[in-house]
TrEMBL record:
This is Blue (type 1) copper domain-containing protein. Pfam families: Copper-bind. One of its GO terms (molecular function) is copper ion binding. It comes from Aequorivita ciconiae. The keyword Oxidoreductase does not apply. It comes from the Bacteria. Residues 69-140 form the Blue (type 1) copper domain. Keywords: Copper, Metal-binding.
């Protein structure tokens, strides 16, 4: 038996081969859906691990918040009353740390590499007023 492959050199034959290759390549892909039973707990754990890794790599203390990758690390920080919190901007763009929602206190713009500190006597929500999707929380433990 002789297989006639002359159609492969014709215009339509090239499209047939192209379609075959595309379908063949895509048919081997597996659909991967992550199995997360408690998404919030998983995200919180991942945030904590990422924040601790960032602090360890930068040799940063426990009452310090690092701004990097358009996020505050950690997003939630537990402190003792009277502790001093330090924000360090390690990102490539300016950020600030401002009380949410009224901006009762603010660091003002922090250029990359700059830092700001504040003594904390109560819990606060805060955000970056320059990039309003960036949010964090300070919890003063009794």
């Amino acid at each position: 038996m002789i297989l006639d492959l002359s159609f492969m050199t014709s215009g339509i034959g090239k499209y047939v081969i192209l379609i075959f290759l595309v379908v063949s390549c895509n048919s081997n892909k597996k659909s991967e859906t992550p199995a997360i039973s408690n998404e919030d707990a998983q995200n919180t754990h991942m945030d904590t691990v990422a924040s601790e890794n960032v602090k360890r790599e930068l040799h940063i203390g426990k009452d310090t918040i690092v701004i990097i990758g358009m996020e505050f690390h950690p997003k939630e920080l537990h402190l003792k009353k009277g502790a001093t919190v330090v924000w360090i901007n390690k990102d490539i763009v300016p950020h600030d740390a401002s009380e949410f929602p009224n901006k009762n206190w603010t660091s003002g713009p922090l250029a990359p590499g700059e830092s700001w500190k504040m003594k904390v006597d109560k819990s606060y929500d805060y955000f970056c007023s320059i990039h309003i999707t960036m949010k964090g929380k300070l919890f003063v433990d009794p």
